[in-house]
């Protein structure tokens, strides 16, 4: 076991660091990149990474990946998140892309993969439905074959950034008589198709991130079916595995702890007994991060030796989200009375916000972070996975 | 031992319940919050008409003599309906201060305007660097003729955009963090030299940053004795905030329990999963404890017990943590729905978050509770 990076890996880390410093668009350094950027602005970094050939670290070289080792991928993920860069859209790059190159046919690979890399197509995820949250296998959206098309009817929900999307990848039921998991197919649907309607869902932080997507008699070419009909559940699970690997969020947590320390220093006098309390709380979170990072490194090292990490992703998801929630709570507390204020959305310079700049997004971040233990398979579901798959309960 | 409400208290409770049930449903509240002004004068008038704005005041002051227990009863129901109108600011804080430290003339001229609903008040105590310390006051007051002029700045003043009058803490002597030398003043919100920058709060209310440049003011209470008055005011406000929090906690528990009995996943109601059952049992226990402590503290407030202020911090802390736990879990158990602006659950979450900041967070108050014990 080796904690230090090899000379090559250290050089790679320095190269990534320098590239970010030289190229990350200043225009994207806004108070809350997740809510404050237009679609075009949020694609600026995407395009820079694309030109550099670094857009899709996970992808094999033949499809446009950079051909990095597992360790290099990890370093890249760590450096980009520590630097606070907005990652390229996960739904496109980490989710649907790998499904297409792993299970799609040649025509699909040719059609979709280059457009994902270039940023031409924006994808969203049609998984959850009002009746299918944690129990995803019960999707009810129906796809009925009609010649060369499927006719799709249903209601998808919690669809992140569907308002910008060109395409949606959907789990649809193609065999209503089969067992829940076996009658599902994985379908790619053009958002411009007649019958697709997007309705915003405003969340408790006031932002518009998620949507309802209604599908009414939408005609989808059979050519847009990925893999085999009724095998969609396999692809869906494959995709969810990719979704969870980055959830430890070490880089993000480290960055927010840094900010939190500055806020505590500025807001709470050293002779206030609360100061020591904050230092202790922050230290405990730092130790949580350290332990999770060490766990992540251990898993990465095993993966580099070809060992399947199994449900390690569930552990990362549980602890990564709990840690980040704790950081946002502490930050919200650290700004004291200013935590009463919240920015209005859509964000505008005309709205007055009290207190120092560093506190302006604390309330919305705190509220928004409540979603982390719910989405991507709730933390209760992740615990079930570990109980079953690891502990054999 | 449970509180045995008197007939009058029962009547108060049922009439508030009826009023809010009839005219303060969640959709009505949503419209009020989204309106230009952000609060409803019509609702306020209805509160006045029902006597709610008179309830806690003594009969001498023109009130109904209900004291802190009537405040508890009203705020518990307000918490259940997420009422945004400034009852605590106007009646409990400003009204309470005027009644306790105001001159007979001030009581005469100000309390009637509170009781009839024509005037809204608030308290401006916090400053940029004060955090939750009532004595950390840099705003200065200078005597001029028969009155005073104030200069300085106050921060996160809840309900200020709605208010007709403010009670402002300002320093008449001493250093920035001295306990003595702070005095209270009545300021007309529209006075010359008063600058107000409004903003929205997480729980759908309005607040403001306030700049004071040579603003004319009249003294309320004894010069230099403002901190003790503020502390007593905070104790009463804590009684009200705790009751409001307990009302919200009860609603969250009821909504979560109801949801867990109807929401189906994996072929069964989610309430049948043991891990969620235990969670909801803990939420139930948190509610029971909070409710008990709320009653205990309000009874102590009524009796004017010694050690009241320490108990206030204890209640604020314990009920604050209970509220945070219940609100977190209520959102979690509602899943994505708990995150939406559409469902009331998230709004209770936000009100509880806001209560947990007002006059100090649970961590501040548990520390104060410990320190007051050590000092005794």
UniProtKB/TrEMBL annotation, chain A:
Location of the Acyl-CoA oxidase/dehydrogenase middle domain: 124-216
Keywords, comma-separated and alphabetical: FAD, Flavoprotein, Oxidoreductase
Keyword Oxidoreductase: yes
Molecular function terms, GO-annotated: flavin adenine dinucleotide binding; oxidoreductase activity, acting on the CH-CH group of donors
UniProt keyword Cell division present: no
Annotated Acyl-CoA dehydrogenase/oxidase C-terminal domain residues: 230-391
Domain Acyl-CoA dehydrogenase/oxidase N-terminal: 7-120
Swiss-Prot/TrEMBL cofactor(s): FAD
Gene3D superfamilies: Acyl-CoA dehydrogenase/oxidase, N-terminal domain (1.10.540.10), Butyryl-CoA Dehydrogenase, subunit A, domain 2 (2.40.110.10), Butyryl-CoA Dehydrogenase, subunit A, domain 3 (1.20.140.10)
GO cellular component assignments: plasma membrane
Domain of life assignment: Bacteria
UniProt record similarity statement: Belongs to the acyl-CoA dehydrogenase family.
Protein name as it appears in the record: Pimeloyl-CoA dehydrogenase large subunit
Organism: Bradyrhizobium forestalis
Upper taxonomic lineage: Bacteria, Pseudomonadati, Pseudomonadota, Alphaproteobacteria, Hyphomicrobiales
UniProtKB/TrEMBL annotation, chain B:
Coiled-coil boundaries: none
Domain Acyl-CoA dehydrogenase/oxidase C-terminal: 240-361
SUPFAM superfamilies linked to this entry: Acyl-CoA dehydrogenase C-terminal domain-like, Acyl-CoA dehydrogenase NM domain-like
GO molecular function terms attached to this record: acyl-CoA dehydrogenase activity; flavin adenine dinucleotide binding
All copies of domain Acyl-CoA oxidase/dehydrogenase middle, residue ranges: 123-210
Gene3D superfamilies recorded: Acyl-CoA dehydrogenase/oxidase, N-terminal domain, Butyryl-CoA Dehydrogenase, subunit A, domain 2, Butyryl-CoA Dehydrogenase, subunit A, domain 3
Requisite cofactors: FAD
Domain of life, source organism: Bacteria
Record family assignment: Belongs to the acyl-CoA dehydrogenase family.
PANTHER family assigned to the protein according to its UniProt record, in alphabetical order: ACYL-COA DEHYDROGENASE, ACYL-COA DEHYDROGENASE FADE28
Protein name (record): Pimeloyl-CoA dehydrogenase small subunit
Organism name: Bradyrhizobium forestalis
